[in-house]
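BUG: 3D viewer hangs when loading the predicted structure for this chain

Environment: internal workstation, default settings.
Expected: structure renders.
Actual: progress bar stalls at 90%.

Input used:
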Amino acid sequence: MVEVWALRTPRTDPDLTANALRITAEERAVIVALRPLINTPRLAKRLINTYRLLRASLTADELTRLRGGEHKVVLILLALLLGEPERAHGLLRTLTSDTTLPTNFTTLIRRSVRVGHTPRPTVARRPLTPAPDPFETTLARVIAETEAADDTNSYRRWAPVVSRYSFRFVDP
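Structure tokens produced before the viewer hung:
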């Protein structure tokens, strides 16, 4: 038996005209900045097409928020979903279910990266400190370069929408 779960009601009349699917210069600039997270041309094409589908399915209110600058948040979440699916799945689950999240998204990433991290031993008498995680530093750099929001609530708001484009179901 197959069960289908919907996280929200999608727009019933998606705008699939060529004009609605066109990527703006602002969106293109963010996509280029996401290059460190998307490492193949195929993933880049998938990111663009998935973003177009997501944008076409939005309600009028969501589209207004997206055009108001939250496209950066959506593109970052999609890039994570496509480029780092295992990490993204855990992050989307945390964003949709955890109520005690830090206010900064980069702090949340740092916390989720450090879970289960065992620091490498260093020379005697030096404190054990974990080495910076390349994923964490790359993501922080992308957020800074794109001037995307760093507040967790922005990412929390878009997590259920973005998770619809995953091959895994994320509980709301």
